[in-house]
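Practice problem: predict the structure.
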Amino acid sequence: MSKEGIEGAAKKGMGAMKEGVGKMTGNHKMEAEGIAEKIAGSAEEAVGKMKDAVHKATK
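Answer:
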């Protein structure tokens, strides 16, 4: 897996945790930040997967 894929997956996981803590504590700002991090992580992970696919296809 590419660097972007790994970092994206980690960011997505941290966003999910942040969103959960925000929901549990009633902190809407933290919850929104967590959702934003999950979306950014998903996009970064997708870029990593695309890079992996291109790399495999050109071998």
